[in-house]
Design a protein that fits this description.
- This protein has 418 residues and is α/β, with parallel strands linked by helices.
- The chain has four domains: 3-129, Rossmann fold (3-Layer(aba) Sandwich); 134-292, Rossmann fold (3-Layer(aba) Sandwich); 296-376, Helicase, Ruva Protein, domain 3; 380-417, no CATH class.
- It contains 19 helices and twelve strands.
- The strands form three sheets. A five-stranded parallel beta sheet has the order 2-1-3-4-5, sandwiched between helices. Strands 7-8-9-6-10 form a five-stranded parallel beta sheet. Strands 11-12 form a two-stranded parallel ribbon.
- Helix 14 (303-313) packs across helix 16 (342-356) and helix 18 (380-398) packs across helix 19 (403-410).
């Protein structure tokens, strides 16, 4: 039977919770403060921890942090008696599965515990499988093209994310590949008949969001129901109005663990939270696993590989596209260009030139004028700084993230590696 460790300094709370939980076939155990709760969790292991936030000497937030250090997969629900959500939002920030605000209803408590236990079971099943299935891991490698250290780091992150169902926040410039990552995560985690529901928050009206996301009773609309067992993909999340953001928090509390939630933005959401233009609780619910996608100009060594890939996909009436080449001078110009549209812009440029070229070898003269204009080229200082950053990233990647070892190889202070 699933087990729950209840940590609260009031024995009366133990007795009340035991009385309402026991009939659900969930076993209960108790601790009267955070230190005892942590010790008991380490000694016995539990499927879920239900902890009060206001305890001494170790409060609920500190217990949460310690549990996550000891067991990153620990599922923790925080109980708070405060009228505001400030403490609850803080708990989400540190990895709480959810929170309950006292006084809570019995049905609300049981529903939250069941969602937490289902999530724990899902994580355990994924952990038992070891990693992403081989075929799906190969798909990740084939869709994320390049050999740079930055891309290698991204591929490693995506493979790890594919084994969990926690919400993922993808950040990065327009055209950097956020949509592709969302598709990869969906393919890796969903069944053959699961649905990827893609919503662009910049294009739909508020009325559409209320109907599709929120629903008549605030328990999820058509989009949420379609995503069950699959993926709800919210693009440009920062474009949602504050009123819809607030309602979405309630929907996610009740439904988010029935599907994979992937959100994207090219804005700094944490800054928007500080400015009061983005809902703090929504931020901590969607940003538990943030992934920053590198701009194309920050992995310029991947450009020749990407150019060859995009050229091979083109259709040219005169040549086999797989035989089309870009000359060394053309590749040099493309590597120096800043690519504000990132992968999307590169794909469009290469595909168009490859499809319309009357010569098999494409030179720099055939590139769009904007690529060849000097005003788009980096200064020498910018170029050298980029090269240095790429080299530092490569050494750090080779040293498997060990900054001390990388610093020793480079002969620099470890603080230089960030």
């Amino acid at each position: 039977m699933p087990s729950v460790l209840i940590v609260d300094d009031l024995v009366s709370i133990h007795e009340m919770l035991d009385a309402v939980i026991q009939p659900t076939a969930i076993t209960t155990a108790f601790a009267t403060d955070g230190e005892k709760g942590l010790a008991r969790y380490k000694a016995e292991k539990f499927d879920l921890v239900l902890a009060d936030i206001d305890m001494k000497p170790m409060d609920g937030i500190t217990l949460l942090k310690q549990l996550k250090i000891y067991d990153p997969s620990a599922v923790v629900v925080i109980m708070t008696a405060y009228a505001s959500t400030e403490s609850a939002v803080q708990a989400l920030k540190y990895g709480a599965f959810d929170y309950l605000q006292k006084p809570f209803r019995v049905d609300e408590l049981i529903a939250t515990l069941r969602r937490g236990l289902e999530f724990r079971q899902f994580q355990a099943e994924r952990a038992a499988s070891g990693s992403v299935p081989g075929a799906k891991a190969a798909d990740i490698d084939s869709r994320l093209i390049g050999k740079s250290a930055r891309l290698g780091k991204l591929i490693t992150q995506v493979k790890k994310l594919a084994t969990v169902r926690s919400p993922v926040l993808l950040t990065g410039e327009t055209g950097s590949g956020k949509g592709s990552i969302a598709e990869i995560l969906h393919a890796a985690g969903g069944g053959a008949d699961s649905t990827l529901v893609r919503i662009d928050c910049a294009l739909s009206s508020e009325a559409s969001f209320r109907e599709g996301l929120i629903g008549e009773n605030g328990d999820g609309g058509a989009w949420v129901k379609q995503a069950k067992g699959g993926t709800l993909f919210l693009q440009q999340l920062h474009c949602l109005s504050m009123s819809v953001q607030k309602e979405l928090v309630s929907v996610l509390r009740n439904t988010a663990h029935g599907f994979r939630l992937v959100c994207t933005t090219n804005e700094d959401l944490e800054k928007l939270v500080d400015e009061g233009t983005f809902h703090d609780e929504l931020f901590y619910r969607v940003a538990s696993l943030p992934v920053q996608l590198p701009a194309l100009r920050d992995r310029a060594e991947d450009i020749p590989i990407l150019v060859k890939h995009y050229a091979a996909l083109a259709t040219n009436p005169l040549f086999d596209a797989k035989l089309i080449e870009f000359s060394a001078d053309a590749l040099a110009v493309m590597a120096a260009y800043h690519w504000p549209g990132n992968l999307s812009e590169l794909s469009q440029v290469v595909t168009k030139i490859s499809a319309t070229s009357e010569t098999r070898v494409i030179t720099s003269a055939q590139l769009p004028l904007r690529l060849r204009e000097l005003k788009h080229w980096p200064t020498l200082v910018e170029y050298l700084a980029g090269q240095e950053k790429q080299y530092l990233d490569h050494v750090l990647h080779t040293c498997k993230g060990d900054k001390a070892a990388a610093a020793k190889v480079l002969g620099v202070d470890a603080s230089k590696l960030g």
